[in-house]
């Protein structure tokens, strides 16, 4: 199968190959620059992701937040002898925008922009030129990451900057459990440290049907000492940025919630405020936060709060916040084995195209059915989307014995424009499927809340991921 279109003549290819060999030493030393999703960030770069916006390098170049050798990118670097990796925690939405580059919604995105939040809480660059990263030569990221697949708007944004015959690549890399974390103290000052929420209770909390911890249907969620009560307004911490964690959480709720409450949950990616996800109802006292680590901090700093947050970030904040079970399942103890992706779970060259207005479930459409004007759709299988319905609730990709709220996290690349980084970037994007690297990268697997993917028959191969990058 031909996974990429090689547009250069044989003579040009030979010249380019010779030049690549001549520059091999330079290329080998170049840092791979990317960023995006915060959900898998601790697994990708290590525990420093819980407190730093950008993580890169080794102890010799970056003493404040070096890559953890037990993280995916750290293990890749250590085991292959390849260059450093810089990862900027922008959130999934901004990560895709930086991958696309250019002006999007009136904001300019560029890999060279600093990895800092602007006044709106948005990060518009991956900090490629930062001292220690030293990639002022880059005009596009080497890679990006997102906890939701490309939407058609993301695809269109990419084409607008790169050209109508140029495409991003997308493959699922890891799975993550989205934890329900809370901070609750009863009326006599005793911390409530354990809770078991049902889907029905979560539907009521996150739709605003329940707005006080004393609401009768929540009484079974936790056991209080005799004569103790909880009578406080519920404060919901939520992602205010373009968030793949929000996509995955609302994906679960859209399938799990029944009746009128289900209409509150819209599975889409462009979340700029709470109303975009939960439609309209009183949200006084709710807590907006940008990034999983910020959501965990918001819960930590606000009594009577609850929120959805990637498990590793919640664990990094424990015991200041507590992690609930959902339907009796734990995001660590009951999310302890890799998830298998089968061919039937995948849609190639398809994107998210909004949400069903009735039930909030994500709509998946082929790119060819959506393109307009001079836009073109790829003919190669280099954009692989895991159908959100297959991991929304246990039973397909997620075993029936597993924790039920799951995200699938993707790595994105560029078909073209990789230059002298081509070999290194191919290798990096294949790292999640490398068994040797998996064995060393223990920040993913076990009870971390993050899991590797097992590629089922005829799904895709690691070589396919790399071969999609052609120049």
Automatic annotation (TrEMBL):
Q: What InterPro entries would the database entry show?
A: PBP_domain (IPR024370), Phosphate-bind_PstS (IPR050962)
State if Signal is listed as a keyword: yes
* Protein name as annotated: Substrate-binding domain-containing protein
What the record says about family reads:
Belongs to the PstS family.
Going by the UniProt record, its keywords in alphabetical order are: Signal
Tell me which positions the record assigns to the signal sequence. Answer: 1-29
Where in this chain does the record put each PBP domain? 90-322
* Signal as UniProt keyword: yes
List, alphabetically, the Pfam families matched: PBP_like_2
């Amino acid at each position: 199968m031909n996974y990429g279109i090689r547009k250069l003549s044989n003579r040009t290819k030979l010249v380019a190959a010779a030049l690549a060999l001549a520059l091999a030493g330079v290329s080998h030393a170049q840092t791979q620059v990317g960023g995006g999703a915060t959900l898998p960030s601790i697994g990708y770069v290590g525990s420093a992701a819980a407190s730093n916006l950008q993580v890169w390098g080794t102890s010799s170049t970056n003493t404040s937040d070096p890559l953890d050798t037990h993280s995916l990118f750290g293990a890749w670097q250590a085991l292959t002898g390849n260059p450093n990796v810089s990862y900027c925690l922008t959130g999934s939405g901004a990560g895709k925008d930086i991958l696309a580059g250019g002006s999007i919604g009136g904001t300019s995105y560029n890999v060279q922009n600093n990895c800092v939040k602007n006044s709106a809480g948005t990060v518009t660059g991956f900090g490629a030129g930062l001292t220690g990263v030293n990639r002022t030569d880059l005009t596009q990221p080497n890679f990006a990451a997102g906890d939701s697949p490309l939407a058609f708007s993301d695809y269109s944004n990419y084409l607008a900057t790169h050209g109508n015959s140029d495409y991003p690549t997308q493959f699922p890399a890891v799975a993550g459990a989205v934890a329900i974390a809370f901070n609750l103290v009863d009326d006599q000052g005793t911390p409530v440290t354990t809770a078991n929420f049902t889907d029905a209770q979560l539907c009521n909390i996150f739709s605003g049907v329940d707005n006080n911890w004393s609401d009768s249907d929540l009484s079974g969620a936790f056991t209080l000492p005799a004569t103790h009560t909880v009578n406080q307004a519920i404060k919901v911490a939520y992602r205010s940025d373009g968030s793949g964690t929000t996509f995955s959480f609302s994906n679960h709720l859209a399938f799990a919630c029944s009746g009128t409450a289900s209409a509150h949950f819209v599975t889409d990616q462009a979340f700029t405020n709470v109303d975009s996800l939960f439609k309209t109802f009183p949200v006084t006292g709710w807590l907006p936060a940008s990034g999983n680590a910020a959501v965990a901090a918001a819960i930590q700093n606000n009594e009577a709060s609850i929120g959805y947050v990637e498990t590793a970030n919640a664990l990094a904040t424990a015991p200041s916040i507590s992690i609930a079970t959902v339907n009796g399942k734990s995001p660590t103890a009951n999310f302890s084995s890799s998830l298998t992706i089968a061919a039937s779970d995948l849609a190639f060259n398809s994107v998210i195209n909004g949400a069903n207005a009735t039930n909030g479930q994500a709509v998946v459409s082929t790119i060819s059915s959506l393109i307009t004007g001079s836009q073109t759709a790829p003919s190669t299988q280099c954009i692989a989307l895991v159908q959100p319905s297959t991991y929304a609730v246990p039973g397909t990709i997620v075993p029936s014995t597993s924790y039920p709220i799951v995200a699938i996290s993707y790595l994105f690349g560029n078909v073209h424009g990789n230059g002298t980084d081509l070999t290194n970037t191919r290798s990096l994007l294949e790292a999640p499927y490398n068994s040797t690297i998996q064995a060393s990268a223990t920040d993913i697997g076990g009870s971390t809340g993050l899991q590797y993917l097992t590629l089922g028959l005829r799904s895709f191969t690691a070589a396919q991921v790399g071969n999609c990058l052609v120049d």
